[in-house]
Amino acid sequence: MPKTIQIQVPIAPLRSKSVFAAYFFMVFTFVGLAGMQHFYLGKYGRGILWLVTWGLLGIGTFVDLFTLRSQTKSINARRAVGIR
Questions:
Q1: How far is the C-alpha of 59 from the C-alpha of 81, rounded, in Å?
Q2: What is the DSSP string of 67-83?
Q3: Is residue 59 within 8 Å of 47, Cβ to Cβ?
Q4: Which of 28, 30, 49, 52 is nearest to 38 (CA)?
Q5: pLDDT tens for the 84 residues of the chain, in order
Q6: CB of 63 within 8 A of CB of 50?
Q7: Where are the alpha helices (DSSP H) in 13-84?
């Protein structure tokens, strides 16, 4: 039985996302109700939900004021190991 050879290709880490940019999109795009901050972070499902429900009637946008920094940190940790 022939041996299989595994080749490991190093994967470059993905660029990290900026907390400032995430807050910028939240503040300057329909006051966060359009969900552009979630599209920027790659959370497309949540971005569409925010877009069609106006940020869960503003409640989700209010919560984002306090959680956007940790959301960005989580996304950056995933991107550092190559997970989109």
A1: 32
A2: HHHHHHHHHHHHHHTT-
A3: no
A4: 49
A5: 667 776 665 566 678 899 999 988 888 877 667 889 999 999 999 999 999 999 899 899 899 999 999 999 999 999 888 887
A6: no
A7: 19-28, 36-41, 44-57, 59-80
User: Residue written as tokens 């359009």?
Assistant: 34
- Looking at residue 7, its amino acid is I
Whose tokens are 């006051």? That residue is 31
CA distances from 60 to 5, 8, 12, 45 (A): 50, 42, 34, 14
CA 34, 23, 47 angle in degrees (round to 5)? 30
Q: Which of 52, 61, 56 is nearest to 26 (CA)?
A: 61
